[in-house]
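Q: Got a minute? One more chain.
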Amino acid sequence: MSSNFSIPKSSNRSESRFASTRKALTFGACAIFLSTLATNAFAQANPARFVSFSEFIDNTKSAAADDLLRRPESNAKEPAAIEEMRKAILDRYNGVEVTHSFLLDGQHYDCVPLNQQPAFRTYGLKTAAEAPSAELLNNHRAPASAKEITPANKPEPVEPFDAFGHSTQCEEHTVPLLRTTLETMSHFATLQQFYQKQPGNAVRAAQSRLFEDPSIAAHKYSFTYQYVNNLGGNSNLNLWNPYVNTAWGEIFSLSQEWYIGGSGSGTQTEEVGWVVYPAMFGGSEKAHFFIFSTPDDYATGCWNNTCGDFVQVADSGLLGNSFSNYSTYGGAQYEISAEYYLYQGNWWLGFNGTWVGYYPGSKYHGGQNSRYAQIIEFGTEGVGTWIWPQEGSGAWSSTGWSHAAYQRNLYYIATTGTSYWDSLTKDQPSPACYTITGPYNNTGAWSRYFYEGGPGGTGC
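A: Always. Here it is, folded:
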């Protein structure tokens, strides 16, 4: 597929605006120093040694709730919350025979037989569903010039062994499960808070137009949308690593796709993208691959299959893992491709040309997304308290190629199974902090694309 895309030049004025905006948010050298100390202390929560699966289970059983509650980074306040988290972890691995474990970027993964993964128990499955054709996924992966963009080479493991000599590939007919510890869970007040992903304005704003729902959540964002009945779609998401300052109350920053159906308590979504979320990932300040789905307006659902709601069939696309490469301002650009496709009643996730797994149709209890979704969305979202984090690259969307984050190769799958290029409308309700430039219509690999994000701040 050829491309006539002309890369726009960046603006020094926009670059200066980006730098000065963040600079204005500092409170002097002392505040910066204290903030750095606090953030670094959180970031060092990653495990410094390999913990075997059996030791992990023993530690989970014997951990004292009072000790966890006293940890500075703990937001759990009651022993009952710790006990609920402990039960969830032990239930997750009940009856599971781990073949081996490995450590990637501070996170443990446990290889479990495909038919022993928690989702088989959640949905009462005997076998995994048949995946869509590989040709279907690969035919829609629009290439870009090698001089422009490089596909990110994680979350698939790059090295065959971790630092401790353990293979980073699971055995045949086994899949890698991200290990979730009590230490990570206790960064949240309750188990439900660990699982949940509030809808944010992107979902609510789209619903308010389609269903006249005035309820608008408090998250900050920039996004594009289209009302169209669909079986999913695709985006190639430019990969960045925006800074999330937890010491200042910033919580997470992401770039993602949404496929939305229903309204009110019947809102249902499939979501995928990358997120910087230190509390979720042991203090890591890197962007991580994530998925999420809810059948009931975010009352239930969880990040990265931690509640056993996703059936994984591939040993690639490690859910919750970080990446080996990130885009640099004015330099090398990296991206991932991600797609959802409602195939034979299940929402299949494609990542970088591989079908990773699926959300079973029974998850949606006969709701809207058991048939098709009604809205497609693409964009950024950030959560803070009194100050909001960078989104995308942290630069204004107007700075364009190699400076601002982008999404491209945007298409949806109609209910007939035919794919069409998106026809998107932008929404930027917090333009003092985050913007969208585009969407643009072009040819080839950049047929549909836009730039997204911004520096965040206090005036969002």
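A: The chain has one domain: 12-52+86-180+191-453.
Q: Perfect, thanks.
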